[in-house]
Write a structure and sequence with these properties.
The chain is an alpha+beta fold. Helices cover 28% and strands 25% of the residues. It is built from 19 helices and 34 strands. The strands form nine sheets. Strands 14-21-20-17-16-15-22 form a seven-stranded mixed sheet. Helix 5 runs antiparallel to helix 18, helix 11 packs across helix 12 and helix 12 packs across helix 13. The longest helix is centred in the last third of the chain and has 34 residues. The chain is globular and about 85 Å long. The chain starts with a helix and ends in a 40-residue tail after the last helix.
Length: 820
Amino acid sequence: MTKNLVYRIFADNPGKVFSYRQLSRRLGVTTKEQREDVFAHLKELKNAGQLTLLQNDDYRLTDAEALKVQPLASERKDHGKNFVKGGRPVEAEFGNDPIVRRRRTQGFDEPGDGQPAPGHTPYRERGQPGSDTITGTVALATSQYAFIISEESETDVRVFTDRLKFAMQGDTVRIRLRGQRDGRPVGDVVEVVHRVKTEIVGQLKLQGGFGFVSPDHRKLYFDVFVPFEALNGANDGEKVLVRITEWPEDSSRQPVGEIVRSFGPAGQNEAEINAIMAEFGLPFEFPADVEEESEAIPDVIPEEEIAKRRDFRPITTFTIDPADAKDFDDALSIQKLENGHWEIGVHIADVTHYVTPGTMLEKEAKHRATSVYLVDRVIPMLPERLSNGVCSLRPHEDKLTFSAVFELDEKGKLYDSWFGKTIIHSDRRFSYEEAQERIESGEGEYAAEIVLMNDMAKKICAERFRKGAISFETQEVKFRLDENGKPLGVYVKERKDAHKMIEEFMLMANRKVAEFVYGLKKTKPRFTMVYRTHDAPDADRLQNFALFAQKFGHTLDLSNPKKLSTELNDLSMEVVGRPEQNVIQTLAVRTMSKAKYSTEPLGHFGLAFEHYSHFTSPIRRYPDMMAHRLLEHYLQGGKNVKTEPVEEECKHSSEREKLAANAERASIKYKQVEFMTNVIGEQFKGVVSGLTEWGLYVEIEENKCEGMIRLSDLPGDFYELDKDNYRLIGQRNKKIIQFGDEIQVIVKAANLLDRTIDFEVVDDRPDSVKAREKDERRNSRGGDRSDRSRGPRGEKPGGGRGPGGKGGGGRSGGGDKRRR
């Protein structure tokens, strides 16, 4: 779906007005990705002065552009029914091939989303001079080659790394086409138009008076040379951040750089976590002027400010958060009304009262866009003075809040809603464990209120699922750490009623705020708002998932789209307690589309909400601050806000959210590997979670740590991959190993630098049989296809993971409070 195709429709029809839907029909748009492409191309063409936005989503060619273009009948063949998807292979997180996939988008170690930077989007009509060269964006597939994704080529162009001119993921390059190889166009980079980043994280190796930095990023294909004068005191074996200062023209040479920061000896906790932060561009501290602004904010609330607000201080109010939390950004209040109904208040920290437009605090919050939760630390969006102090809804203190207040009966039926600025006084701070004790025992302080609200929440949740919400969700791994950050244990977080109760009331607040703003204006254009949107899953990916589930005896009927959520929920219940439960549920989540922020009110498929926003976590999410400002503006009678600046902020927030999630996964993987270094030689029960031609991946049930067993190390036979049926088959004994099979493994090795774990199967056969087999393998090993390594630095060849691996994995409706 190229920009050229969109442009030609207008060029062939000068003066004619097309709506977004008309364009989609002409282009044969059927998938979410294609819809997003059309929307992005329209916006770029408008910004370039080639299209005019008339109203709502109607566009036409600008007058100046209409004078320049000449319709080309030969280029009209792509309209409507003749439109076909580009020639590039479909390679998504689940993709057409659930056994071995190539990750074309970011993985846990992939900062950025592979999109060109603003101002560097290429666009050139075919047939112009120099058409043997095209401009595009680098997407590294392996350490041997990259794909160049370009609007000027319907098929991605493969470029081998020795011809990349040291371009990296997301860089914009100009390439010269030079024929085909294996049916795919290939080319050479002739110019790096724009580099996304010039700093790399890696391990420093000293040789004489100079050094080399070997990158942590698994797909980077070059080391960086560091002369003596640029070492800046860094020592051999340390994790460092190197800034590249010289990019050589000759591919036989290496880029030259200087050490910007040393994190300490590689493999140590502080060095590795800081290296992850640097790799993903996460900040280490707040700028001094931001800290100064936050420290200048007064603690005392002026009486004139209190007078402007609805006073909830006399009403029973409490917070429920993790035991170690310090930033309390939501509280609940409860009181009985005269008519017998209950008034439930969802009170959210009024961050935007303190963080105002034009301040350095605002600028920094917008840039960070989200707090990042690594295993052993939080990188906050706001300075501690605000996040843990002034804005945090701490007990026994007056706090300014922005509230959504609901009138409900005991069955959870909603009668009325109110939104506005408030002041509260929290009577009690509960941990989730303390709230759960009250739910289970019915005893203790505020037990009656908590039990009542939990009963309401259950009924609200049941109604949500009746209307089509999806129950799949991934399991969250947590760690017990000592004072030095060393993992003492790994466990799966259990979500109990206390978590679900808070979640339901936050979901209600987010939903009703979105519905309120959407309903303020009955005609288009609607009032601009920040929505949290989640599209229905792509049909092809769903079909692949259904075929995969069928291998385990589970049938997924996709014939009726209206019953899709019911089918998925039934499957979720079927697999509970089965060996394949985690594999099926993880893949189901990854089959779903990814949620994002947008000004388009597209609804939320996973939650079954027509309109949904993020309102309840402004301390740690910038989109919530945006929603607060917009809601306050409209409550005060303000006119509609321009959409484009808000949409840009939504896009930035979505990108930062993905980056944060990838950094979090990287820290989890590191800690899992670190934990496994302490249990080398121990035995665990695991589940087969991925299959490739060189090995099988096993996830330990009790801690979700995943490692690999090489096929050449499987005892008793030589195994080959049966790709079509997602299994391994022994050549002699025909034994079958497939997804979801339980398997006993021994931890063979754990490599902290590569973040990889190696297992071996528990072999209970007699020693004489093992010795004879060992001799047979030694004699036949030469050239054996199954005796393969992971690839450079532990990478699975192709850059992907088996489908049971821990890839993208967004949530549909449940999960941690910070994800709501």
